[in-house]
Write a structure and sequence with these properties.
Belongs to the INSIG family. This protein has 233 residues and is an all-alpha fold. It is built from ten helices and no strands.
């Protein structure tokens, strides 16, 4: 290839300043539209997650008013969630903040999830969330030590399976602790009069449930707001 042909090909590959500016504005507009469309989606997810509490978590037992007598785990966690003040707007706001925070943290650190989030992976993440719900509200453990070991192991398994980013782990854990603290503060009187066994179960199961929810929202966020140039690391 001679010098003239190389120069012509180089000129064709270069974008004019006006074209570069136009492309940048198009990207900004598309990002803005994505953000606007994601707001009602995150709010709807937060609302539906709260609306499903009476169905999934059975906050009131039809057989007895004693939360320790029937479906013990389901009652204590379901009642604690239902009794949280302003639970519906808090859930909507919490979900929206989670979704956008994950995206902005990914962009800031230029490091996305080490697990390539696809629709099939999102379904597996949702299945994991349902599995945690079943484990938290239906499974029985013979000892508190085994309960603690299984809970801690599940934190690690969920993160490895659906994230693997350091900032994702730190943010997921921090946001889980914030949500747990809000629920506890809204149920101080209720928890002080409950059985110590119920309090112990709530201490381990509630953060695990919230952590799986946070990871699920991160997967949804990375599907909805993922840049077209994102690839698996």
């Amino acid at each position: 290839m001679n010098r003239n042909s190389m120069y012509k090909s180089h000129q064709k590959s270069r974008k004019l300043p006006s074209q570069a500016i136009s492309s940048r504005y198009e990207n900004n507009y598309s990002s803005l539209i994505s953000y606007i469309l994601c707001v009602p989606i995150f709010l709807l997810i937060g609302y539906l997650s709260v609306s499903s509490i009476p169905i999934l978590h059975d906050p009131s037992s039809p057989n007895s008013s004693n939360p320790s007598s029937h479906l013990n785990q389901s009652n204590i966690i379901g009642r604690a969630l239902i009794r949280t003040k302003h639970i519906k707007p808090l859930s909507c706001l919490y979900t929206a903040v989670l979704g956008f925070s994950y995206h902005f943290l990914d962009v800031y650190y230029s490091s996305y999830s080490r697990v390539l989030i696809s629709f099939s992976n999102l379904l597996r993440c949702f299945g994991g969330f349902i599995g945690v719900n079943y484990l938290v509200f239906k499974a029985e453990f013979p000892s508190y030590d085994r309960l603690a070991i299984i809970s801690i192991s599940l934190y690690f398994i969920i993160w490895v399976a659906f994230d693997r980013s350091i900032h994702g782990l730190l943010f997921s854990y921090s946001s889980t602790m914030v949500a747990t603290w809000i629920v506890y503060c809204s149920n101080v009187n209720f928890l002080s009069s409950s059985d110590p066994k119920d309090q112990y179960i709530l201490m381990f199961h509630l953060p695990l449930l919230l952590f799986s929810y946070v990871i699920l929202i991160s997967a949804i966020s990375r599907i909805l707001l993922r840049p077209t140039s994102q690839t698996a690391n």
